[in-house]
Amino acid sequence: MVAQPNPPIVIKAVVGEDRRLIIDLPPDAPTGNVTVMVAATEPAPQAPAIPVNSERERLRAILLAAGRLSIPQPDEVVDYPPNPDWTTAGKRPSDEAIRQAGILPAGARPSEEIIDELRNDD
Q: How far is it, in rounded angstroms, from Cα 30 to Cα 8?
């Protein structure tokens, strides 16, 4: 005669925040090696969906159609030439180098005019 395996025992339990589970088995539970399986009875909570701002998306579509929406291009690599004022790669420029970078060359139009022109450009 072939021994039939015992049917599995299903017990409902709650796993606390400490992730510990203590189970009292019924008297007819088998002794010896067993397999314990833990399965959630309800789906895990999902992160809340990011709300869509319809007005923002409408304005983005208008700007995109007009060619005024800046879209980052992550695959685009810009290789800037090294700055001669920076003697070591990755070194912070000196305060004087930063100050000099903010000064327009002699005879250049004032930056206010350039900004106004860019803002009024249709």
A: 10
C-alpha closest to that of 19 among 38, 44, 5: 38
- Cα distance between residue 20 and residue 16, in whole Å: 6
pLDDT digit string, tens, across residues 64-107: 898 888 877 766 666 666 666 555 556 777 788 888 888 888 88
Tokens linked to 120: 């009024």
Do residues 65 and 57 touch, judged by C-beta distance below 8 A? no
Residue written as tokens 């004022």?
85
pTM above 0.90, yes or no: no
Among all chains, which residue has been given the structure tokens 């019924």?
26
Q: Which residues contact 110 (CB under 8 A, 6 or more apart)?
A: 104
- Show me where the domains of the chain are located: 7-40
What amino acid occupies position 78? Answer: V
